[in-house]
Design a protein that fits this description.
267 residues; alpha/beta; Rossmann fold; ProC C-terminal domain-like fold; eight-stranded mixed beta sheet
Length: 267
């Protein structure tokens, strides 16, 4: 596979669009990207924005060298049933549905197509995503390089064994929501202390963004950075002691296990 390979994208929602943008950024010719999307207005929007093509689902998968399945987990079985008689037998199938295993996709297709399972996350939409990819049987080195290459255009990508995908889902897949929930809690706490909604939001968001940038660019661990801002018996120490009293580590670990367990249930 290379930048001249034909790519089919099934499902052109927000994540689908982010992946289309990544494909183009990685060097794929937009004319070789074809979408299959039920909403005609959405198709028209993306065709105008990216100069890509559109085709009926069965036609699209028959011609593609790479097939990106960007559909909801609950819709995956129906899509696979619809395409299994028409899919190009040489195409690599890349699935982005949470919880759906490589074996699930393979068994539903009933073909020998190589399959790659990917867990992305929503910051993919702004080029700061985190994706983890697992390679199924028969995936060639060329296909692997192609997929990891365009995923790198969405942010960062790692390769993991498939049995770790539930842990990935609980960490980076669902992780942005944990972050957003913490921001909501900080804003609410700031308002209780007397700050206006606008000021509380500005202070919280910029603090979080700045802290994330510092963590990403300083080369220092979260532990060291936390220690650097925590003076003995100071204000930060008081706040962290409160977190400790509420057993923050256990709370987060329990929440992540719940996400991992749910990912297994979706398989």
């Amino acid at each position: 596979m290379n930048q001249q390979s034909k790519v089919a994208v099934v499902g052109a929602g927000i994540m689908g669009e982010a992946l289309i943008s990544a494909l183009i950024s990685s060097g794929v010719n937009p004319a070789l990207i074809t979408i299959s999307e039920k909403r005609a207005d959405r198709s028209s929007e993306l065709i105008a924005r990216y100069s890509i093509q559109e085709a009926p689902l069965v036609t699209n998968v028959a011609q593609a060298d790479a097939l990106l399945l960007v559909v909801k987990p609950q819709d995956m079985a129906a899509v696979l049933a619809e395409i299994k008689e028409s899919i190009n037998p040489a195409a690599v199938v890349i699935t982005f549905a949470a919880g759906k295993t490589i074996s699930f996709v393979s068994n539903a297709l009933g073909t020998s197509n190589p399959i790659i399972r990917v867990m992305p996350n929503t910051p993919t939409m702004v080029g700061a995503g985190m994706a983890a990819a697992s390679m199924g049987a028969g995936v060639t080195n060329e296909q692997k390089i192609f997929v990891l290459g365009f995923l790198a255009a969405t942010g960062k990508v790692i390769e993991v064994a498939e049995d770790l995908q539930d842990a990935v889902t609980a960490t980076s897949g669902s992780g942005p929501a944990y972050f957003f929930a913490f921001v909501e809690a900080m804003v609410a706490g700031a308002k209780e202390l007397g700050l206006s909604d606008q000021d509380a939001t500005t202070l919280t968001v910029q603090t979080i963004v700045g802290a994330a940038k510092l963590l990403d660019e300083s080369g220092k661990s979260a532990t060291i950075l936390r220690e650097n801002v925590t003076s003995p018996n100071g204000t930060t120490a008081a706040a962290l002691a409160s977190f400790g009293a509420s057993d923050l580590n256990s709370m987060v670990a329990k929440a992540m296990k719940a996400a991992s367990d749910r990912s297994q249930e979706l398989a």
